[in-house]
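This section describes the prediction task in plain terms. A model, or a person checking by hand, is given the sequence of a single protein chain and must write out its three-dimensional structure as a string of C-alpha cells. No templates, partner chains or ligands are provided. The sample shown here is typical of the held-out split.
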Amino acid sequence: MKFKSQQENCYPEEIPPPKTGDRAINRSDAELRRNAEDIVASQEADVSAPLSELDTKRVLHELQVYQVELEMQNDELTKITTGLFEREAQLKKSEKLLRENQQQLQTFIDYAPAAMAMFDHNMRYLRVNRRWLTDYGIEEQDIIGKSHYEVFPEIPNWWREAHRCGLAGECLKSDGDPFERADGSVQWVRWQLRPWYDDGGDIGGIIIFTEDITERKSVEAALKESEKQYRSLFDESLDAVLFGKLDGTILDANLAACRIFGMDVQELCTVGRSGIIDYDDSRFDSAHEQREKSGQVFAEMTCLRKGNKQFPAEVSSVVISHDPPRFFVIIRDISDRKQAEQDLKNSEERYRQLFEVELDAILLIDWETGKIIDANQSALKMYGYPQREFMQLQPSDLSADPEVSQNAIKDRISKVSLRFHRKKDGTIFPVEILASYFEYQGRPVHVAAVRDISERYQNEKLLTDLNQKIIEMNEHLLEVQEIERIAISRDIHDDLGQELTILKLNLEWLESRLPADSDDLHKRIFEMCESINRLSATIQRIAANLRPPLLDDAGLIAAIEWHVSEFSKHSGLECFMMLNEDLEPLDEKVSTVIMRILQEGLTNISRHAKATEVSISLCKKGQNLYLEIADNGCGITQDKAASPKAYGLIGMNERARACMGHLAIVGEPHCGTTLVLSLPLNTGEYTV
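The expected answer:
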C-alpha cells in the first residue's frame, strides 16, 4: 500500500490535518513543508530503528514535520501580528494626525476670507464654509446634500453653463459678475471654480470660490460717478476753472477758461498766471497774501484776455493737499454784472426822479416788518405828515380800518378799488390802491400807489343815488302801469261790454218788430249782431291781455294755461306746458311779474322767432321759482339780446329785478331761443 493513497487516514483522530488554505503566511505550503522536512531529517540522522517499524517511523516523521511546520507558522504569525500591531499603532497615529489636519483644514476653510463650497457631480453641496453662508444670507438653512440650483433657483443660465464646464474639467474664473437675487437685489461676485478628483482620478465635482465685491463695486461706482461729476463740473462749468502749481504754472483748464481768456489750453499753460491776472491791480497782492495764510481766497480783481484786454472778474482760489501742493482757481467774468449794476444805478436815479414827480402817493413798505421805508412828496402832501414822522408809521396807521389793511398786505392783494384812509388831521377820505411785490436790496417789499378818489367817489355816489332813484321810479311806473291796466281792463270790460250788450238787445228788439217778409232787414240785423259778438270777444281778449281776470280769480297756473291756450289758438303754434300745480299761492306782485314776462316772451316768439313749437315750464327748485320759455325758431343773437333798442327785453329785465330775480336769454342760430326767469321765494317782502 502506497503512502500517498493512505495519507489522509494515517493521522490520529485527535490530530486534524493542517488547513493550509487558512494560513495567513507569506510563504507557500510546499516551501514550508520542504523546510520542515529538512529540519526533521537533520534531527533523525542519528536515530536507529528496526525496518519493521517503518510505518511507525513514517508517522512519527510526519508528526515531527507537522510540529515543525506549526512552529514555523507560529513564528511567521508572531512576526505578522507584531507588524499588524505596529501598523495599527501607526494607523491610529495617522488617523489622529488626519483628524487634526481635517480640523485645521475646516478651521482654515471656515475662516477663510473667501466663500467656498464643494459640490458633487450633480451639484449637490458636500461642504461649505461660514463665509459662504453669510455672504449669501443662508445661515439658517441646512444646505448639505441639497442641489445648488434648489438653494439658488435664480442662478442664470450662463453661470450654470460655467458649472458644466467645470464638471468637464475646466478651471474658470471672473473678476466680477452681477448676481441678481430673487428679491431683486444685485450682488457683485468675483469667483473661481475648478474640478476636484476622487481616488480613481475621476472628476468628483467642483469647488467654487467666491468673494462678495458688492461694496467695492459700489465704492468704485461712487468714485467713478464722483470723477464723472468732477469732470462734468470742470468741463461744463460756465466759469473758468484752472488747475496748477503754486508758482503760477497752469497745468489744466476747462473750455470756459479758453472761451473767457480767448486762448486754448496749451496757450494758457504757456502764459501761466501772469498772463491772465493783472499784477498791476493792487487787489492781487492782498488776495495772494491771504491765500498764502489761509489756503483760500475770494476777491474781485482785474483779469486779462488774449491781447492784454482787461475785464473785471471774481476770483476764488484754494490750495489743495497734494504732493507737491496744487491750486484750483475759479474765475468768473463779471463784465455783464458790472454793466448791469451801472444800469441799475442809472435806473434807480431815473426811478427816484419819477418817484418824486408822481402825483399819486407812492409808499415803499418792508413786507416783513410792515414799516414804511420810503415815500414820495405826494404821499407827504396827501397825508399831511413831515418826512421824519411819516417814516415812523406803518400802513395800518394810515388806514381808517387798520385790520383790513393789514390782512390785505398779508394776503398780497394787488388792487383795492376802495379803501378809506385817515390824514394826520383826522380827515377820512377814499383812496384807490395798486400794489406790487418784489425784492428790493435783498428783502421782500411791496410798493403801493395810493390815489385820492374823493371827487370820483362823490360823483359815483351821486350816480348810484340817481340810478337807485331811476330804479325806484321805474318800479313805481310799472306799478302805476299795472294799476292803469287793471282800470282800463275793468272799464273796457264793464262799460264797453254793457254798451254792446244793450246795443245787441236793441237790435234784437227791432228785429222782433219787423215784418216777416223783410228778409233784407232781418239779414242785416243778424250781421250786425254777429259784429257785436265779435267786438265783444275782442274787447274781452283785450281786457284779458291787460289784466287776465283768472290771475285774480283762479291764480297764476290757471291764468298761464288760459293765456297759452289763447296764444296757441291765435298764433297757430303748438304749445307744450309743464306746470308745477303744487305751488303755494304766490305774492300778487310775483304772479304779475311772471305773467307779464310770459306774455312778452310769447309775443316776441310770434313776431320774430319763426317757430313751430313752444314749450313753457314753471317749477320750484330749492328756494327759487323758475319760468322757462323755449322755442325751435331761428334763435336770437347776443347782439340783439343786448341791443339798447330791445325794449321788450329791457322791460322784462326790469320786472325781474323788481322782484330780486334774474332773467337769462340764450339763443343759437337755427336752434331756437330759451328764456329763463329765476325768482327767489324767501326774500323778505316777496316771500311766498
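For orientation: The longest strand covers residues 428-440.
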